[in-house]
Amino acid sequence: MPDITALAAFKDNYIWCLRQAELALIVDPGDAAVVQRYLQQQQLQLAVILITHHHPDHTGGINELKQLWPDAVVYAPALEQQKIPYADVWLQDNDRIELPDFSLTFQVMQLPGHTLGHIAYYSAPVLFCGDTLFNAGCGRLFEGSAAQMWQSLSRILTLPDQTLVYATHEYTLANLEFARWADPDNTKLADYQHWCQQQREQQQATLPTPLAVQRQINPFLRAGDAALQHRWQQHNAVDLFTALRSAKDRF
Question: Where does Zn(2+) 1 bind (predicted)?
Answer without folding.
Answer: 53, 55, 114, 131
